[in-house]
Amino acid sequence: MKLEILTNSRLKEFRRCPRRHYYLYDLGIDTQVYSEPLLMGTIVHLLLEDWWNHRLILQHWDELYKRSVIDQENDLDWIAKKKVEAMINGYDVFYRH
Hints:
Elements: H1 8-16, H2 18-26, H3 36-54, H4 61-68, H5 78-95
Helix pairs in contact: 1-2, 3-5
């Protein structure tokens, strides 16, 4: 039998809306939709973290991007992907010494 960990966030969610708690924690369905700026910022931060840890961003752009996307429903459109790629490439050129 697997023991569930009760976090403050989980308890707060249950008190706020038991049905949402059931969907989120019991069924694993997250109904949150991410706005494009929030999603883009999250992806940039994850990619920069990977860049700092490995410095391999340019050689493995597609793999790192796929790992950083939260899920397929919240993927960026091609224009936003190009913006993220340009930001990361610029960061790489400026700080790689």
